[in-house]
């Protein structure tokens, strides 16, 4: 199935006003387990920073992480880069209306985008699985970081991260160019790219996997089957989300021995 068309439809619905867009961001933070992991990692990273820092949001998508960082860290400078011109224009317009002045949106190809030793943090959420030239992109990230700067990635693992569990199966999200990364595979690519150390952990373990089915996969399958489900969706989440919330809280607090996602931290 195709995931992007559904995201675009939801984006149109929630983009009717500034407050609905902010509500959309808040709902994404609640629903997406990867957002729980990323927010936890960002909080720990921020606690170690002193003074103003510079951030790259690489492949910012809807802009929800850019928005959160711009509000929580108003003294910071954020470059938000994405390949899709329509998303760049849309987010740029929205952020200007919201009075956010510390974010610079630009269209860019991450395979060629480099700003030598500019950033303290590079954030890359749900991007690497879409890029064939991943080592080149990781190298660009490393070259763009200041000494001691951190790269933070969320990406599917090879343990079924794109809902692929057996040979011959295709990805639930057809836009992916690979089914996922192994920990050793990712570590080797980080080493090749020039990073000195890293911490790679599984996300979406046993609890997170069930949460993903309830909060994301099943709703997306139903939305693909019929547009009528858009009207039923709020009632579905009234039942399903309290369960997903507890499962998400478990996943971010335990050490998963395996999982369908990876949370990667790497330092230059």
Structural notes for this entry:
- By secondary structure, this protein is an alpha/beta fold.
- The protein has one domain: Vaccinia Virus protein VP39 (Rossmann fold), CATH 3.40.50.
- Helices cover about 50% and strands about 20% of the residues.
- It has nine helices and seven strands, in the order αααβαβαββαβαβααβ.
- The protein has helices at about 5-15, 20-30, 35-45, 65-70, 85-95, 135-145, 185-195, 205-225, 230-255, and strands spanning about 55-60, 75-80, 105, 120-125, 145-155, 195-205, 260-265.
- It has a seven-stranded mixed beta sheet, sandwiched between helices.
- β2 (about 75-80), α5 (about 85-95) and β3 form a beta-alpha-beta unit.
- About 35% of the residues are buried.
- Residues about 165-170 have low confidence and may be disordered.
Give the rounded overall mean pLDDT: 89
Helix content estimate: 40-55%
Question: Low-confidence stretches at least 5 residues in length (pLDDT < 50)?
Answer: 164-172
State the total count of DSSP E strands: 7
Beta content: 15-25%
What is the CATH topology? Rossmann fold
Largest sheet: 7 strands, mixed
Structural class: alpha/beta
- CATH level 1 class label: Alpha Beta
Please give the alpha-carbon distance between the first and last residues: 38 Å
Q: Architecture in CATH?
A: 3-Layer(aba) Sandwich
- Tell me the name of the CATH homologous superfamily: Vaccinia Virus protein VP39
- How many helices? The count is 9
Strand order of the largest sheet: 3-2-1-4-5-7-6
Tally of domains: 1
Elements, N to C (H/E): HHHEHEHEEHEHEHHE
Shape: globular
